[in-house]
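Hi! If you just cloned this repository, the fastest way to understand the data is to look at a raw example. We've pasted two of them here, unedited. The first protein comes first, obviously.
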Amino acid sequence: MDNTDSKPVLYTYFRSSASARVRIALNLKGIDYEARPVNLAQGEQRSAEYAELNPSRLVPCLEIDGHRLTQSVAILEYLEETRKNCPLLPTDPLQRASVRAIVSAICCDTQPLQNLRVLLELPESERAEHARKVISQGLAVVEKMLEHTAGRFCVGDDVTLADCCLIPQLYNAHRFDVDFGALPRIKDIEKRASVLDAFHRAHWSQQPDCP
């Protein structure tokens, strides 16, 4: 890629929580982009054409500034480092570490264990229970972390990358009927985020490929 002036393109899937993280950040930073859906359920990510874009055959993939970026957390960090408006990392080093710890708890320890690739390896009768168990365990960890970091949002009173990652994980939590009874801080953060336009527009139900 060499066109740094072209409109950013996000290869995405409406139910992909990894894609939703990036959609939220793009919205928060006011970056207009073109969404190009990749239907994971129909295996479009395994096509030779898409593999040329993203060898891992996953979403999201973001074309921006003449570059092609993959892996949602790396994309979030790139946006934070290149777009200084609406900062999504605190200035305090300890708070920045707290944000990254929550991001990792979701993006490394929870979501990959219940994504589509994993679920398809299981008998269909076991998929929902597996996802529910993994998500419940992961969110319990995050809820405990929030005891020490949360204000109005995950770390303090401002939206951070932690919120960009938490809220999409809750899409899956609701989909698999996770019990939110022991997650009061997470429930409060979800409620506050739900009224923000950037989160609303990134929701799976608002995507062009949502059936």
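Ok, and the second one:
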Amino acid sequence: MSIVPRLLEFNKKFVEEKRYVDYMTDKFPDKKIAILTCMDTRLFELLPKALNLRNGDAKFIKNAGAILTQPFGSAMRSILVAVYELGAKEVLVIGHHECGMTNLDTKGMVGKFVEHGIDPLVIETLENAGIKMDRFLRGFTCPEEGVMHSVKMIRNHPLFPKDIPVHGFVIHPETGHLETIVFDYQEEPKALTE
């Protein structure tokens, strides 16, 4: 049975009781940051709380592994919109330990496509058209590698401004402990030099 009817019933009461008032903000991130992170369910509430972020403080872009696979894909577009249109002044890439994208079994996943009814000819056609499954379903050997891959892709993007710092971190999905992988200031922040 689908959970959707229960979600819709809750939503109706939520709106009727005006519980949304506690979350009202505008579209501009108050703390002027955009965060590329993983879609892992453990990070949904933990990550903002571990960074003392409230609703409206940051733009969150989530995908599997916080990994950018295409320089002109939707995640990179979201980062560019956050910077150019919504006022983000820094980008944080936050991966996490115990990520499902670590050593992702591409062949096993393709096998699951077939188990769920995807015709193997479709996969073969995609491969022949240049959509290589091992690249499309790219994982990494450790979260630090994934974070640095995304940081480098953002920094080197031809449309990304050079004066916007891109930081990289790995968070522990149980404790919220954040490890710095790269702290990217082209020049020292004023708070540290004064």
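That's it. A detail worth noticing about the second one: The chain has two domains: 25-98+143-193, 105-138.
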